[in-house]
Each structure stands twice: as C-alpha cells, then as structure tokens.
Amino acid sequence: MTTLALPRRVLLLRRWTHLATRARGWVRGSEVAVVGLAVLIGIAVGLLAWGMGAAAHGLQRLLYGLEPHLRLSAATGLPTWQLLLVPCLGGLALAGLNRIIRRWRPRAPVDPIEANALRGGRLSLTDGVVVGAQTVLSNGVGASVGLEAGYTQMGGGLASRLGRAFSLRRGDLRILVGAGTAGAIGAAFNAPLTGAFYAFELVIGTYSIAALFPVVASAVSAVLVARALEAGTYAVETAAPSVVDPVYYPLALLVGALSGLGGIALMRGVGLTEGLLARFIPSATLRLMAGGLAVGGLALISPIALSAGHGALHMAFMTEAPAWPVLALLVVKAMASILSLGSGFRGGLFFASLLIGALGGKLFAAVLAVVSPPGPDPLILAIVGMSAFGAAVIGAPLAMTFLALETTGSLAVTGPVLAAVAVSGLIVRRLFGYSFATWRFHLRGETIRSAHDIGWVNDLTVGSLMRREVQTAPLTMELAAFRGRFPLGAVSRAVVLGEGGRYAGIVSVPEAHAASPEASIESLLHLTDRVLLPSMNARIAMSAFEAAEAEAMAVVDGPGRRVIGLLTEAHLLRRYGEEVEKRRHEESGIASA
C-alpha cells in the first residue's frame, strides 16, 4: 500500500462516517424521515410476505400434488397414506430443523409484542428468519397453523434492525416495529386498515397521532406490493348485503358472547394439550410426529384440518350446509389447530380463528333456521362470527372490525360486527385476561398482558436510583456518641450496622436527639426487616415503601444484608414521574418533533 493511498482511504472513511452521522441525526429529528423508513419497510415486508406465501404453497403442491390454484384445506380425494404420512414426516423434519437452530442460536426468539413491551423495540432480524423458516415448513407440510406469525416476526425484525441502524429513540423504534407488523398483516390479508389497527392494538399498545403516519404508510406500501405481485396470501373475499335488518344486532351480541367463550376454550385447550403432550411424550421429536399424525387423521374426516384454511374459509362463505356438518367441520378445525400448536408446530392462530369463527356463525344461523325457519342470513352471521372469534383469540377488536369492512365492503355489516367484537373482547378480558399471544407469554412465565411499554420500568431499578454514600453507625455505639457524630440538621437518618457489617435498621436523627439519655441505639431502630434489593424495579420499590410506610429504605446486596445504598421515596417518585412524562411525550410525538 502506498503512502498516498492510505490518507485517501482514511479521508473517504471519515467522509462516510460524517455523512452517516448526519443521516442518523436527520432521521432521529424528522418525522417525515421516519415515515420514509416505514414506506421502505412496507415494500420489503410486501416482498417477504409474497415470498413466504409462495414458498409454503409451493411446498404443499410438491408434497400433496396439488394443482397450482388449489388450496390444501379445500383439496378432496387425497390418498389416505399421503394425509397421514406427510404431516407426520413434516413433524420429523421440523424437529431436525429445530435441533439445528438450537445449536446455532440456543435462545428462544423474541416476539414483536414482547420486544415492544420489555425491550423498547429491540428485535433481532435473525429471530425473524428462524420463525419464518419454522412457520413455512409447518404450514407447508399441512399443520393447522398460519404464516402470520412468520410475517409479523420478519416485519418487526426488519423494522427494528433498520431503526437501530439509524439510532432511533425508544419511542420511535417501538412505532417502527409496529409499522413493520402492520405491513405484514396488511399484505397477508390484502387489508391495510386491518394491518394498521393490528399494530396499534397488539404491537404498539396504544393509538397516537405520532404512530399513525408511519404505521399507515407501511401497511399501504406492503399491500400495494402484495397486490402488484398478486401474492394471494390470505386474502379473504366475500360479498355482503348493503342493508342489514336491525334484528341482526341482538343476534350479533349472542354470537359475540359465544365467540368469547369459545376463544377462551381454544386458548386454554392449546395450553392444556401442550402440557399433557410434554408430560406423556417427553421427546420433542415424537411429539411433533404424533401431532402431525393426529392432524392427518383429522384430515381424513375433512381437509379443513390442513394448513391455515384459506380454501375452506372461501367455501364456508360461499356454500350452504345444515347444522351437523358445520359443527363437525368446526370441531375438526379446532382440534387440528390445538394439536398442531400443542405438539410444537410453529405458526399462528390468526387465520384458523377466522375460519372457526365463520363456521361458528354459520352453525348459529343453521340452529336458528331449525328453530324458526327460514332463519337469518348465514353469510352475515358467518362474517360476524369470523370477526368476533378473531377478536377473542387475537385480541384486536378494531382490527377485526376493519377486516370485516375490507372483506365485504359493506358498512351495514360492520355495525353488527362492531357490536359482536365488543362483547367478545369484553368477555375474554373479564374472564380470561389474555389474547393468544399474551397467553403464550403467561405459560412461559412472563407477565405481559399487552405491548404497552413496561420495559423502561424494569430498567428503572433501585440500583440505578439509590444514593451510594450512606451515613452509617455501629449498633454498639453509645447514644451520646451518636448525637455527637450526627448533630441536628446535618442528616435526617443513619443506617445502623450490626455484627459483621450486616444491616440492623435505620435510626431517625431527630428522634435520637429527643430520646432519653438512658435509651440505646437498638431501641430506636426502625425498618429492621424492611430492605430493598438493587434489582427491584421502580414499581416494586414503590409497593415496598407503601407497605413499610417509610420515607427512606436501605438497599442491601442480598442474603449478606450488606448495605450498598439508600433510596428515598421522594426521589423514587420524582424519577418515576419524569419517566412517565417522557413516555407520554414520546407517544404524543413531542420527543421526535
């Protein structure tokens, strides 16, 4: 290397670093730039949704010998050996893939909801690749799971990676992750409003003007790309009347109530099945193979058990059927979804819940037709059931309402749908308290109930708030010596240390000066069994202060009870209030203005 080449290269590197720094600063300070990033993310997510959908459908065509435009859940006449063998061997293949992934990446992937709730939007793109591969394989071999989990993981991971490259603030990064998932769901269902409100309700955890523009920009961009590519991922298309009789409103309330109870049963069924299979079949590989074999057995009754159910949903909207066959199809699909997820196949319940809800609405209409012929329009109640059951399981009532609107183009049907999803969501909220995603977190031991940002609370720990300079005194010190060491007005309290420097309690300096000369330090001790640990977050610390009715508490290192700091309630409340106000500013867009 010549002496002239080195300075030129260094100069170019410095220029590039300077331009990158200026670009990061511009993006961090510009709302328009964040919207521009969201558009790019939407375009990329639209391409990813098309690619993943094509890969899964291509795998189904290869393994089941399907015609190019035939959906697996609507395929009839498939050989028995194929229905039993393909999902079973598919479980074996997924187990092998999981083993390879664990060696390469042993920790479990972080979900976009979890990332936004606990990690300030920090999400790994590699996790998206992992989940995407698992969902494509699971769906491709016929397991009763949808690809939406892979779509949202990829969309959120891509958004987080791009946002961190530009050093976005915590609030902006969370919004961008929501925008990535909005594009994923929008492209998956050809429904931008559904994608946008999915992001608001599930991934961002709140609606704000600051989040509106990037989320909508990503959702619309992804849908346009998916339409241009004719992705045909999960698009739901049906027709509905432009006028709906008011009698459908009380019927919708009943469908919503039944959907809420049914959604709870489905979610609990997944958790119960997972626990039972893990108990009786310790091998993860055998669980997957057994789950695949069970799904194949259900497919012998009806192909509705296979894959997400796109073809079956289209047939559910378009065909008439009496009550008993509809009930059988509903049970088959519900059992297939429970067994697929409970045995370890990777995917989502989004589309399956739509299909189960549509079948439930048709079943309700068929029962009413038997009781009082000719009964209500089964198509209207199928749309109502689809949205209400989806709201119960997914936990996004407005997203499900907009899905009905974008599916049918009928404002008249949207009214009963809104009533149904409100009842369904209320029942699940009061009786269960989780959506399917947060229920899965609960089974893992997490305490997340939404994507609302609580990660900053965990970051605001006692260790980061405490004062390390602590006034201490030995328990054996005479009261007179204590008064001399801590005169009135110098400090308000002192931490007393017992044998071996262990925490013994806190003494109030004014109380010590007011005590009789015969009193001892030990008789003046307070909070002898009340301490804080440095790992406690702000909320736990506030609860500890409230329980102790104290103004200040010592912070100890754990079992050794060695004092490492002191925290006052006033300082804790002030810092907590500052952080709350900061999050409010971020949500309203003030921080990024």
Automatic annotation (TrEMBL):
The keyword Transmembrane helix applies. It is a multi-pass membrane protein. InterPro entries: CBS_dom_sf (IPR046342), Cl-channel_core (IPR014743), ClC (IPR001807), ClC-type_chloride_channel (IPR050368). Coiled coil: none annotated. It is found in: Membrane. The keyword Hydrolase does not apply. It comes from the Bacteria. The chain crosses the membrane at residues 32-59, 79-97, 175-200, 206-226, 247-268, 288-309, 321-342, 348-372, 379-405, 411-432. Keywords: Chloride, Chloride channel, Ion channel, Ion transport, Membrane, Transmembrane, Transmembrane helix, Transport. SUPFAM superfamilies: CBS-domain pair, Clc chloride channel. This is Chloride channel protein. It comes from Belnapia arida.
